[in-house]
Amino acid sequence: MFTPIRKFARALRAPTVEEREMAYLNGSHDRIDLEYRQRQVDRGLFRFR
Known about the structure:
The protein is mainly alpha-helical and 49 residues long. It has one domain (14-49). The chain has helices at 3-12, 17-26, 31-42. The mean pLDDT is 88.
């Protein structure tokens, strides 16, 4: 009964910080780009305080 509501709610929710970081890292083209992106994530690119 609640399955359609749950699916709808999941579709509308915003991605978490961890999900955004992982998507950003997965978009790298090579090892150098990945290392650059990892440094940006370590510096807090996606974490707003």
